[in-house]
Amino acid sequence: MMDGKEKFGPALLALILALIAGGLVIAVIHDPLTAFLRTPLRTEGYDADRMVFIYATLPRLAMAALCGAGLAGAGAIMQFVLRNPLASPTTLGVEAGARVALAIATVAAPGLLVFGRDLIAVSGSAITTGLVFLLVRRRGFEPVATVIAGLIVGLFCGALAALLGLVEARQMTAVFLWGSGSLSQQSWSPFVGLALRLGLASLALLPLLRSLAVLQLGDEGARGLGLSVARLRFVAIAIASIITAVIVSTVGVIGFVGLVAPALARLAGARRLVALLGWSILLGALMLLITDTAVQLVAGQLSEFLPTGAVTAVLGSPLLLLLIRRMKPSVPPAIAAPPNWSDPPAARAPVILIGLGLLVIVSLLVGRGPSGDWSLPFDAWGAVAVWRLPRILASGAAGALLALSGVILQRLTRNELASPEVLGVSAGALLAVALSLVLFGEIGVAGDAVTAVCGGIVVLLLILTVGRRSGFAPDHMLLAGIAVSALADALVGVLTAVGDPRAMRLLGWMSGSVAGVSLEAAVLTMLAASVALFAALVLRRWLELLPLGSEAARGLGVNLTRARLSLLLLAALTSTAAMPILGPVTFVGLVAPHIVMTLGLRKPRSVLFAAAGTGAAIMIGADWLARTVSFPLQLPTGLVAALLGAPALMLLLNRKGRG
Q: How does the average pLDDT of the chain come out, rounded?
């Protein structure tokens, strides 16, 4: 039976949003509607105001409601099917695939744009979604594996698009503008076309609703009733991806609605699939309608150039932060393993550390000389070591810091998708640097580093404040981090879309370049990595017991609040310590722990050492490629690490699935 909260909570929230949306819509259309009604229809000539009202204002309002509903519905399906509140249309790389396809076409083959932007965007989305399905097909589209694969593919595409943006900044301006999402319309044709395509996708989804609802019983329960869980999950995700792809190809990336609307519906009390889907669609339509009408009222004529997708994140993030405190903490499944986990017989952690040492030696000795020729600097060791050694030490230490942070977060939250990005600390650093550039202009490398650390700490305090009431429940922490991350990304999107020259400076810092790092900074980063590893080893008992579940950990004497707070602080401070070197590029914090887990290591002590070594190796290898592959051009180390680590993790996931 539906409880009172599920019956009235979403309805009350929808009513409030509907009243706000109605008021804003009336404010937007009042003057043009009055002029439209009072002005007689001209039989001759051209009535500009009437044409703008009919073919620009009204289609834009309709498009906002339609896109919001579609994205929210797609997000609700993904979150329900994958059983993960972090799932959204961005999770499977749908939006990232469309963006990188347009970026490649713009830079490498602009002639393809003649065939249509929609075709290119949908093709890119289809390729990335297909790649995700390919990676997880042997694992029956298991929820966590699907989400991880989608996130990796999306990060890889994002890194590739960012790299193209740095190399071909002038040509990529239009792609950045499109990527931030714009609802501006000049006719009813895009709305009608999108409505027809979404209608067909919805008709394909309707017969599946009853079967999808059975997934609430769990995979085993659904199989017991004769359902093919893998096939059902595949079809549902495919339909949600198609819905997202056709919206993205029409208006650009407005992905935050797909995450927030289902979260708001659940926070208001919606639990069953039909209720969650219906209320998410309604809330998503109202949210995007409110956002776009607010943009039109505030920005006036400039609203045509202000990206609605970015503004949606700006408005939705504080709302999500406020409502997270009312959210009942969910209980993720405990890891079915005894406290005394054992590693395989092979001593893989020492092998990783030995390999790291060899990589350092190769990176120091092998490289390009001033003329671009490959050489071994035996005759000029002093001159070469001055600029190679600090880069190697700094990138390796930063990689180790991020890997340690990833291990801590994944064990603490029992969510394999958790990483420094999701916690939101790196986004706080990015937000602080962006605001500093807007308000004060250039403040130098040291100033950016101090600003980034301060921003990360402020966001950490904010997230801890949000989660204090729930005893620092992991899902509350992750959702709060996502809200802050969306806010930071939105600001960067606004700066980029409006053509602010400071955006390129910000994109450069975001890419994680270690060029010019000093030896003193490298030594301090190594010291921070050593301290972080020591602290994690001291707290390794909590890292071993918390994945067993709250009740089991409490029964073994763990103070959950103290353990969660301590580990959250350690993870956040560890990732913050790497930001002065790499900026907010924390991809290795997701990659390194998964590489270690696929190697069979389980004991916290071994995992910590191996993850730190793996993270350091990834960043050192990425830095070597960044300074040699396109010499004399120095590529950003962080982006190269993402381009290098993502395919490696894809192969490991596929190999694990086969096993």
A: 76
Separation CA 260–CA 87 (nearest Å): 10
Measured over the CA atoms of residue 174, residue 180, residue 181 and residue 185, the dihedral's sign is negative
What are the residues whose beta carbons fall under 8 Å from the beta carbon of 417, sequence distance 6 or more? 84, 86, 144, 147, 148, 151, 590
- Give the three-state DSSP class for 601: coil
Residues of the chain with pLDDT > 70: what percent?
Answer: 71
Q: Indicate the burial class of 493 (C-beta count within 10 angstroms; 0-12, 13-18, 19 or more).
A: buried
Inter-CA distances, 585 with 435, 526, 614, Å: 18, 18, 16
Whether 447 contacts 382, CB under 8 Å: no
Q: 375 φ, ψ to 5°?
A: -155, 160
**Which contiguous run of DSSP H or E holds residue 647?**
helix 637-658
* Lowest-confidence pick of 43-57, 223-237, 260-274, 522-536: 43-57
* Of 79-93, 161-175, 199-213, 236-250, the least confident: 161-175
Tokens of 166: 């740095």
Buried/exposed 223-253: b ≥16 CB within 10 Å, e otherwise: eeeebebbebbbbbbbbbbbbbbbbbbbbbb
Q: What six digits make up the tokens of 31?
A: 């003057």
Give tens-digit pLDDT for 565-588. Answer: 888 888 888 888 887 787 766 678
Half-sphere exposure of 518 (CA within 13 A, CB side): 7
Instruction: Print the SS3 string covering 610-633.
Output: HHHHHHHHHHHHHHHHHHHCCCCC
Residue-wise pLDDT for 285-318, tens only, equals 998 888 888 888 876 666 666 667 667 766 666 6
Instruction: Report yes or no: 316 and 260 within 8 Å, Cβ to Cβ.
Output: yes
- Confidence band, pLDDT 50/70/90 cuts, at residue 340: very low
Q: Mean of the pLDDT values across residues 529-536?
A: 93
CA 381 to CA 512: how far, in whole Å? Answer: 27
**DSSP character at residue 180:** T
Strand partners for 368: 374
Using CA atoms, how far apart are residues 317 and 601, in angstroms rounded to an integer?
37
- CB contact at 8 A, 214 and 225: yes
Helices (H) and strands (E) in the chain, counts: 28, 2
Q: Which token pair is 597?
A: 């887990």
> Which has the closest alpha carbon to 473: 514, 530, 424, 413?
413
Question: What is the three-class DSSP state of 648?
Answer: helix
Per-residue b or e along 285-302, where b marks 16 or more CB atoms closer than 10 Å to that residue's CB: bbbbbbbbbbbbeeeeee
CB 536 within 8 A of CB 570: yes
The three-state DSSP-derived secondary structure of 352-418 is HHHHHHHHHHHHHHCEECCCCCEECCCCCHHHHHHHHHHHHHHHHHHHHHHHHHHHHHHHHHCCCCC
In this prediction, residue 652 carries a pLDDT of 65
In the block, which residue shows the tokens 């921070």? Answer: 528
Rounded CA separation 103/89 (Å)? 19
SS3 call for 573: helix
CA distance 287 to 314: 12
Residues in the chain: 659
Kind plus residue range of the DSSP H or E element containing 172: none
Instruction: Tell me how crowded residue 196 is: count the other CB atoms within 10 A of its CB.
Output: 11
Degrees, nearest 5: CA angle 173-175-181 = 110
Q: What are phi and psi of 337, to 5 degrees?
A: -155, 145
